[in-house]
Design brief:
With 111 residues, the chain is of the alpha+beta class. The protein has helices spanning 21-33, 70-74, 87-100, and strands spanning 10-14, 35-40, 47-52, 57-61. The strands form 2 sheets. The chain has a two-stranded parallel ribbon.
Length: 111
């Protein structure tokens, strides 16, 4: 998947905390240097192959932030947290949507 990325693509990984440590290790150089490195072969004939990857955006989503390894967490430039809407925010959304759809809603019937 990484080798098929084009410049400006977004790689989205849901439940990023479930990545194996081996995959994380591969991602480190991809995220930092845009280079995919891996070993080909075994023993004395093994060679390290480096493949340049165009700049892309990596987004990892999780509901278990504490389970994301510290080295992987440290490589993300921005962290965002989504919270539930409050009842008043939901009321505002429903009222506005009702106005757009020309639907009559009484405040007492929102919940």
């Amino acid at each position: 998947m990484i080798t098929n990325l084009k410049e400006g693509d977004i790689l989205f990984v849901d439940e990023v905390h479930r990545l194996s440590r081996v995959v994380e290790e591969v991602l480190y150089s991809v995220m930092e240097e845009f280079t995919l490195s891996w070993m080909v072969g075994k023993g004395l004939g093994a060679q390290n192959v480096n493949l340049k990857v165009p700049p892309f955006t990596f987004i990892g989503a999780t509901t278990r932030y504490a389970m994301v390894s510290a080295p992987l967490r440290d490589r993300f430039g921005s962290l965002y947290r989504l919270d539930f809407y409050s009842p008043s925010e939901i009321s505002q959304i429903l009222t506005r949507s009702a106005q757009i759809l020309n639907i009559k809603v009484e405040n007492g019937n929102l919940f």
